[in-house]
Amino acid sequence: MLKKLFPNIIIITVLAIIIIQPVKAESIFTDIEKDSWYGTYVEDLVQAGIINGFPDGTFRPSDTVNADQFIKMVVTALGENPGNGTKYWASSYIEYAVEEGLLDNNKIIDYKKPLPRGEIVCIISKALNILNENIEIEACGLYDLYGYTPDCYVPHVLKTINAGIITGYPDRTFRYEKYINRAEACAVIHKLVTPITRREHQITSFTPVPVCYSYIKEKFTTAINEYEGNKSCFVAHGNVSGEGISLNTDFNADINSNVIESMKLLYDNIIYPVFEFNALSQNNVVRIDLFQNEKLNHNKNYAMFTLKYFDAPTGYSETQWGYDSMYIKLEINRLSWDGLLNKETGMPDVYYEYKIRALMRILFGIERGDVFAQFILDNYIEYSDYDAGNIPETSKLLSFGGTKVIFFCEGNNRQLCFTFSED
Questions:
Q1: Less Cβ crowding at N or C end of the chain, within 10 Å?
Q2: pLDDT tens, 67-94?
Q3: Separation between Cα atoms, residue 87 and residue 91, nearest integer Å
């Protein structure tokens, strides 16, 4: 851990003095407007010796920031200036960052390429440790954390957001895979070294969701205890009946972990999941119905969407829809009033979109999960123009990575169905 904090104090003091001075009439760079949102950040950091522009007098604020550029910014902001390397200008800054733990467990492959937001928050989180800042982690209402954002990034996302350094997007997503530009990088560095300029983290206006992803821990704990205890049914809200079963077959070896991770994903205070065991004559099913409103009577026809996990072959004869071999089935039910679409954009509501994306990643990993999620969302958008009960009969097949997904609607049905089987 870095102990030499005196240079940091100097930088913070210098910036604290700079930011109370009147904004300059003219920018020091030819491509920065004096009234731009980031202009003050850039000029303050230049005067503090943390950043500089290009030889042609530009700063290029809209260019994505590369890993080596951002690392130099952070190292310099922490009060260190090892100077440029001999063969590669950033080598000395990277070496210093490695020595001080700024790049521990990083996934950077090429330092000359842009740095995604997930890696940005990891570096900033560790810089906060070096500055001995103790950040209290509170509620976070971002929609794309659990299941979608890799676990290695989540604690750092929570820390930097609660520190007021980085915020989510207006649609309540973080988007760990997106890149930031040089202007945004300056805002991040400025807030890192001058806490007085940080805004209280902006997620306070979001629907509060407990820390450590999205699930409500108390209700999840109760449900998981009932699940592992093989109770006849377990619910988040309402009453559902069913018959207890033991999920332990070779047909779907991952069924228990899939159900548990799905429960984590779906237990929050925005939608209302109902879980049940449903024992059929040929197979056992874990069924999860998602309701938009806890005041609904939990009639399954009013569920937003339904997940079914099978631990044995169904015995059904509809081979054209994958019914005979499916081990997972997704039914999207709400196709008209109060459906999954955002009426203003005509696209799936961001909350539901990331539930689908995260669910597919949980079940199939990132590569296959992203392909299947896009297949589901594309078909939902296409067929959501139809009124419930008037959707034409249709069927589509997608095979990828050893898994077969069949999308179908039986016609005169209010459901869009997706079955998942081994290919």
A1: N
A2: 999 999 999 999 998 888 889 999 999 9
A3: 8
Average pLDDT, the chain: 78
CA dihedral 397, 400, 404, 408 (to 10 degrees): -30
- 3-class DSSP state of 396: strand
Partners of 271 in the beta sheet? none
- The answer to whether residues 74 and 124 touch, using CB atoms and an 8 Å cutoff, is yes
Phi, psi (deg, nearest 5) at residue 39: -55, -45
d(C-alpha 75, C-alpha 96), whole Å: 8
Confidence of residue 419 (pLDDT cuts 50, 70, 90): very high
Tens digits of residue pLDDT in 287-313: 888 877 665 555 676 778 889 888 777
Q: Which residue has the tokens 């870095």?
A: 2
Q: How many CB atoms lie within 10 A of CB 50?
A: 25
Rg value, the chain, Cα: 26
Which residue has tokens 């945004």? 184
Query: What is each CA distance from 403 to 322, 326, 369, 397, 399, in whole angstroms?
Result: 11, 10, 11, 11, 6
Task: Report residue 293 as tokens.
Answer: 């409103």
Please check whether residue 285 is in contact with residue 303, taking contact to mean a CB–CB distance below 8 angstroms.
no
Please state the pTM of the whole predicted model: 0.80
Backbone angles phi, psi at 304, to 5 degrees: -65, -50
